[in-house]
Write a structure and sequence with these properties.
The structure is a single chain. By secondary structure, the chain is α+β, with helices and mostly antiparallel strands. The protein has one domain: Alpha-Beta Plaits (2-Layer Sandwich), CATH 3.30.70. Helix content is 40%, strand content 20%. The protein is globular and about 45 Å long. The protein binds inosine-5'-diphosphate (IDP). Inosine-5'-diphosphate binds next to loops.
């Protein structure tokens, strides 16, 4: 059993569209454990660091404008195979192509405004969690239903 931590962002469209509760509930109901949670007005500097891998792509500037356009909710989820589990719950990048039942499939139509970010590997999860959270902002606890969920 591999317990992992992953970074999830509820991007500005999720906050503006009042989908924070709906989306967060999906990760909770799956059995993941919350390890970090905060509302962030993202700076250009943080957005550039977070999306450094996309620098030079045609959508890069627009993506930075999007991520800095309003508050973002940053979450750290913990649990068995958390990185892959969260990516599955999210769906594909393009909301229009994401299957129903996924977050993007149910609530997104756009490629850019696709509501959520999720780390795509365990290595990137560690880097992204360190970028968004200080150590003291993360909490580890044993949930009361751990024996049933794990
Ligand atoms: P992911 O979020 O599904 O992992 P990435 O390829 O890492 O997708 O892209 C990061 C983000 O950049 C996407 O979530 C989306 O907001 C945006 N994006 C990706 N490709 C495009 C595009 O072709 N046009 C506009 N925005 C894009």
């Amino acid at each position: 059993m591999t317990t992992q931590r992953t970074l999830i962002l509820l991007k500005p469209d999720a906050v503006q569209r009042r989908l924070v509760g709906e989306i967060t509930a999906r990760f909770e109901r799956k059995g993941l454990r919350l390890a970090g949670l905060k509302l962030v007005q993202v700076s250009r500097e943080l957005a550039e660091k977070h999306y450094a891998v996309h620098k030079g792509k045609p959508f890069y500037e627009s993506l930075l404008t999007f991520l800095t356009s309003g508050p973002t909710v940053a979450l750290v989820w913990e649990g068995r195979e958390a990185v892959a589990v969260c990516r599955t719950l999210m769906g594909m990048t393009d909301g229009a192509k994401s299957p129903p039942g996924t977050i993007r499939g149910d609530f997104a139509l756009s490629v850019q405004n696709n509501l959520v970010h999720g780390s795509d590997s365990l290595e990137n999860a560690a880097i992204e969690i360190a970028l968004w959270f200080k150590d003291e902002e993360l909490v580890s606890f044993t949930s009361t239903d751990a024996n049933w969920v794990a």
